[in-house]
Amino acid sequence: MVNQILYPLILIFVSVLILPLVSKVGDYLKFPKIRDFFAFIVLAVSMLLIVSMIPYVPLSYHLSIFGPPFGIELYASMMSIYLALLSITIVLLVAFYSIKYMEVDNGLDKYYTLILTLSGGIVGLVFSQDFFTLYVFWELICISSYTLVSFRKYRWQAVEGGIKYLLMSTIGSLIALYGISMLYGVAGTLNFASLSDIIVKLQPNISLYFIIVTIVVGFGMSSAIVPFHSWIPDAYVGAPNCIASISTVILKISAFNIIRSLITVFNPTNYNYGPILICFGLLSLTFGNFLAITQKDIRRLLAFSSVSNMGYIFTGFGVASYIIYTYGYFLSYAFEMALIGVFLHMMNHVFGKGLLFMTVGNFSVQTKNYSINSLEGLVKKMPLSSFSAAVGLLGLAGVPPLSGFWSKLFIIASAATVLSDPILLVTLSLLVFNSVFDAAYYVWVFQKIVFRPVSEKGQSATEVSVFMWLPVVVLATLLIIITIRLDLFITFVRAALWSLFGGV
Amino acid sequence: MYTILLFFTFLIVCLSIYCIVSKRNMIKTVLGVEILTASINLNFVIVGARDGYVDALAQSFAIISIAIGACVAALALALIVNVYRHYGKVDWDVVRRLKW
Fold first, then answer.
1. Which of A20, A182, A227, A228 is an S-S bond match for A221, by CB 3.0 to 4.6 Å?
2. Where in the sequence is the domain holding B27, given as residue range(s)?
3. Is B75 in contact with A147 (Cβ distance < 8 A)?
4. In chain A, what are the domain boundaries?
5. Higher pLDDT, A122 or A452
6. Is A173 exposed, middle or buried (0-12, 13-18, 19+ CB in 10 A)?
7. Residue A175 pLDDT > 90, yes or no?
8. Total domain count, chain B
9. Domain holding B43: CATH number?
C-alpha cells in the first residue's frame, strides 16, 4: 500500500519518464500536440490528488528502514497543501497557455518535460520535512527553471538572462547549503521536527545567528530581495512570458523556505532576526518601486514590481518576528495578522503577477513589441485580455475592494500596533508611502491600456486564440473570487499557519 | 581540531566567493562555484566525523551534493557555450547588453 502523499510525486515523475515517448508517438501519428495535452492532464490529475489529500492531513511518510530523525521524511500539512495548490494552479494554466504560445518553438518535448520536473520539484519541496530533501528538491526546481529561462537559446537575451540567473541562484543555494551543513554540525539531524526540539534547548549564540544569516542570504538571493535583485529583470526579459509567470512561484517558494526554516527551527520568541528582515524588506520595497517607475519595457517594470512585492512579504514576516520577540505573546494577534497578510499576499501576488505576464505575452504576440507605450488603447482591440490585465493591475495596486488591498492592509495594520516603537514607526511610514507609490505606476499602466486611444502598433491587433485568453480570464476570475470570499481564504490561510506552528 | 577544520573550510568558502566575484572569465567563475561546492561537501564530512566515529548520513549528503553540483556545472558550461556563440567572448564584461 503506497502512502497517499506519494501519489502526486509518483504521477509527475513517472510522466516525466514517459513524456518523451508520448512525444515520439505524437510525431509518428502526425499530431505532435498530444504531448502538450498529456502534460496538462498530468498536472490536472496531480492537482486533484493534492486536493483529495485535504481531509486526511497531516500525512507523513518515511522510508521504513530509517526512522524520521535520520532518513528522508515527507509530511503533508495544510501549509504544504496551500502552497502546492497555489503553485500547481499557475503551472497548470501555463501548460495550457503554452499549447498555443510556445508552438513557434521546436524542442517542445524537452519544454514539457522541464515543466513537469519543475512542478514535481515544487510538490516535493513543500512536502519535505527535512532540510536535505528540501535542498534536493530546491535544486531540481532551480535547474529546471534555469533551463526554461534560457529555453529560446537562439535569442541573446535568453542566454544572458539565463547565465545571470544561474550564477546568482546557484551561489545563493550553495550558501544556504553551507548553513545547513553547520546546522547538522550543531544538532546532528536535519529533520525539522527534531531540529526544533534540539535548537530550543540551546542558548542563542553567534554560530546559530551565523546559520540564520546564511539561510536568509542564501534563499534571499533566489527570492530577489534588494542587494541580490540584479538578475531578475534580465531573467524575465530573456524568458518566454509563460516561464516568467512560473518564476513568480519560484520567488514565493524561496521566501517560504526562509519563513519555514526560521519559524520551525529558530523560534522567533528566542531569536531576534526581525530587524534584519525588516531592513531587507524595506530596501526591496523602496528600491523596487523607484527602479520600476523608470522602466520603459513592461517586462522590466513587472520584474521590479516583483522585487517590491517580495519586500512586502519580507517586511511582513520581519514585523511578525520582531513583535513576538520584543512584546511576547501579549501581542500575538498582531503576529498572527502579519503572517496571514504575508501568506495572503503570496497568493495575490502569484495570481496577479502570473496573470500579468501571460497578458503581456498576449499583447506582445499581437503588437510585436514590449514597450509600455505600445499597450495604449488595447482594450478596444483585445477586450478579454485587457480586462483581465486590468483586474491584475488594480489587484496588485491595492485598490480597495480587490484582494491585494486586504493583504497589504493586514501587513500595515500589524506594523501599526505599537506606534511608540521607533522601528515599527519607520516600517509603518515606509510601508504606507510605498503602497501609495506602487499604486501609482500600476494605475498608470492601467490607464494606458484602458483610456488612451489606440497606438499605431496596436492598430492591427485582434483578440488571441482561446488557448491564450482562457488562462488569463480564469486567473482574473480567481482574483475576484478571492475578493468576494475573502473570509473563506483567511480561514484556510489561518489553518495553514497553525500547521506551520505544529498544530493540525 | 574540529574547530580548526571548520575554520579551514570557512577559509575555502571565502576564497571561492572571492574567486566568483573577482574573475571576469566565466569559466573561472564556474571553477569558483565548483570550489564552493567542494568546500561545503568537505564541511559535511567534517561535521559528520566529530565525535571520533564516522556518520554515514553526512557522507551520503556529501555524495548527493556532488551529483547536484555536477549537474549545475554542466548546465553552466552549456550556457557558456551559448554565450560564446552569441557574443564571441566568454567574459562577464560583454554580457551587459540588457538595459532598460
1. A228
2. 2-87
3. yes
4. 292-302+316-504
5. A122
6. buried
7. yes
8. 1
9. 1.10.287.3510
Q: Which of residues 57-76 of A touch B (CB under 8 A)?
A: 70
Q: What is the pLDDT of residue A200?
A: 86
What mean pLDDT do residues A371-387 have? 84
Residue A466 CB contacts under 8 Å (≥ 6 apart), including other chains? none
**What residues of A are in contact with residue B57 (Cβ under 8 Å)?**
70
Supply φ then ψ for residue A196, to 5 degrees. Answer: -65, -35
Does B20 reside within a domain?
Answer: yes
CB contact under 8 A, B43 and A166: no
Q: Which residue of B has its CA nearest to A140?
A: B68
Closest-CA distance, B27 to chain A, in angstroms, reads 12
For residue A136, how many other CB atoms are within 10 A of its CB? 19
**Cross-chain CB nearest to A237 (options B33, B83, B98):** B98
What's the pLDDT at A341?
Answer: 92
Smallest CA-to-CA distance from A493 within A56, A83, A59, A48 is with: A83
* Inter-chain residue contact B20 with A238, CB threshold 8 Å: no
Judge whether A383 and A476 are in contact, CB under 8 Å: no
Distance between CA atoms of residues B84 and A163, nearest Å: 12
CB B82 within 8 A of CB A153: yes
How big is the A-B interface in CB pairs under 8 Å? 92
Instruction: Give A80-91 pLDDT, tens digit per residue.
Output: 999 999 999 999
A222 chain-B contacts, CB cut-off 8 A: none
- The answer, yes or no, to whether residue A121 has pLDDT greater than 90, is yes
CA–CA dist B24, A181 (Å, integer):
29
pLDDT in tens, A54-112: 888 788 887 766 666 677 788 888 889 999 999 999 999 999 999 888 888 888 889 99
Q: Which of A136, A160, A170 sits opposite B97 (nearest CB)?
A: A160
Which pLDDT value is given to residue A503?
A: 59
Residue B36 lies in a domain: yes
